[in-house]
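We emphasize that the prediction below concerns an isolated chain of 210 residues; any contacts that depend on oligomerization or on bound cofactors are therefore not represented. The input was used exactly as deposited, without trimming of termini.
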Amino acid sequence: MGAIEPFRQAWEEANATARTDAGRLWLVLGDSTAQGIGAPSPDRGYVGQLRARLEARDAQPWRVLNASRTGARLRDVITRQLAWLDELDAAPDLVTCVAGSNDVAWRPRLSGTLRDLATLLDRLPRGTVVATIPRGLNPGRARVVNDQIRAAAPARGLVVADVWAHTGPPWAGKLAADAFHPSERGYEDWTAALAEALDLPPISPAGSSD
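Result of the prediction step, given as a token string:
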């Protein structure tokens, strides 16, 4: 886990630039996966990969303001990360929230996780893309959390990115050395789920005329 501090510093520096630059703005809420932990560099997690997809679609740069924190649980998103919205001069063009895995993996009481999830879904701005819990964690608990996301999010004007449906075995090459976080290849599946929720077209292979 030696990447935690370097990745955090990299995003802090990128955030400072994003706050002053012009262009479309994406606010990222979440945990270590939003930091890109497990990938070889911060921009090779799902945030960097999805940013490339957005820029390919729009033919212009996107600014990324990354409020995520390694180890964050749902309560952290509610109490700390949502406040970033109040600091912006205008609403961001995109908000994503990929969180809850740490609650599913480490929090003893599922009832508290579901309570915090309900609060978070109520407070996220309409149009926010909310991800389901991936496969590979406690499957029984993850299914209960995902059922609540799929049932409650659309009624609140939120968009569901079904990371659960895009992840799973075979795991070869998709896990980082810690056997918990995705590798760069694993993050491709997370990116695919978010891209699907945003109706992003596939990136044409290099040299393609499309």
